[in-house]
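In keeping with the milestone schedule agreed at the kick-off meeting, the structural modelling team has produced records for the first pair of proteins. Each record is given below as a sequence line and a structure-token line. The laboratory manager (R.T.) confirmed that both were archived under the project's standard naming scheme.
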Amino acid sequence: MHALVVIAHPEPGSLSAGIAAQVAAGVRDAPGGHTVELADLAAEGFDPRFTAADLAVHRRRAAPPADVAAEQARLDRADALVLVYPVYWWSMPALLKGWIDRVFSNGWALEYAPDAPLVKKLGRLRVHLVAVAGADARTYARHGYFGAMKTQIDHGIFDYCGARAETSELLLDSETGDAAAGLETAHALGRRLFAASSRREAA
């Protein structure tokens, strides 16, 4: 099986980048011969701006532009999508949100029209979210931030397209805590990404 790991962080040496690399390594190290592609949106120069051209795609008046079509092809090859991102203002960075805005387009991720029922088209895709947070667990619990993020991202984005948000990891205290623990968690996530599928195939 094949995983697409997407990272949205401006620094190649960031903890987020290290975590994404460890997820990818875990996928490769797991039994079963699984494959993985790492997509670094900042390094690749993806343009997250949702423009009039993207609105035309949404309205089904134009085909997706080349950069969007390339990202959709990456996702079409994947059985699982892993998003690794730092928490900015209690959500994902604008780069990653813009990637979703543009790539998860009408006609590809879903079929939407005002006079027809919504059709969710990504039922085959499993999604795993790894958010790297600077705050501690008490802050998230006190303000309900983690629940709000799950509602906005897990449900509001992926459920709406039919994709299954199977795990949501929140790696806390990233600026003051033990980075090694986060890297170990990321590697373990990669190793078990396709474990259930491998067990079903062996049965």
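The second protein of the pair:
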Amino acid sequence: MKKNKDSEWFIHAVLLAGVVVVVFPFIWMILSSFKSLPDFYSFSFWPHKFDFSAYKFIFKETNFLQWYLNSIIIGAIVTLSCLVFNSLIGYTLAKYKFPGRKAIFILILSTLMIPTEMLVIPWYMMGAKMNLIDTYLGIMFPGLIEAFGIFLMRQFMLGIPDDLLDAARIDGMNEFKIWWRVALPQVKPALSALGIITFLGNWNAYLWPVIVISTENMRTLPVGISLYATGDAGGIQWNMIMGMSTLAVIPMIIIFLIFQKQIVEGITLTGVKG
């Protein structure tokens, strides 16, 4: 009995240490955003005096709110597109038998092996020819349908009993209604996980947006913040960068706290679906 208690204490101590390691940078970032620039360089953990000058500068001297809006619009549209099209393709590959089905699925999976850095040049050439540079659609089109999402949805769709779909057909449903009203409700954990992962990925995306964006009003949060982090906007003000980062991370924390059950459930079930 004592041995079990000792092991529990050890496990809790290790978990607590892990929490401290993970949370400490966030606490330091938030506190640093309330420091003046000289106070920031004093390397003290707690601000000597809470200073809101960084936030005043962010809201008055930058287009931070526009960048925020751009990130929300892009993240929301890309997420909605992925949920619709990835689930449609996954449903088709899982539940319809047609020549070349396996070859198509393997071809889709093979795209996951291509580094993003190798794709930005053809993406840019395509965007330039279609006049998509520095537009919302130009930023979004590489992520509107993703191979990982197709794979995830197919794996979950395979677990839906064929008898359930056949019963819906007997009741007179067309194929679109079967997908919408029968298949999708069966894979809600996967849809939740895919939606949250997709939104987070687009919220934090940097490489492609920084290439395709050329005007200040079209910048997303990572692109806008990076200009101040590199000094391109006229000197590095770390307290302001910490303030921008704090404001940028708050929605993600809220989303995770609200949907953490769906995230964990979806990711867990992904590993056991055949």
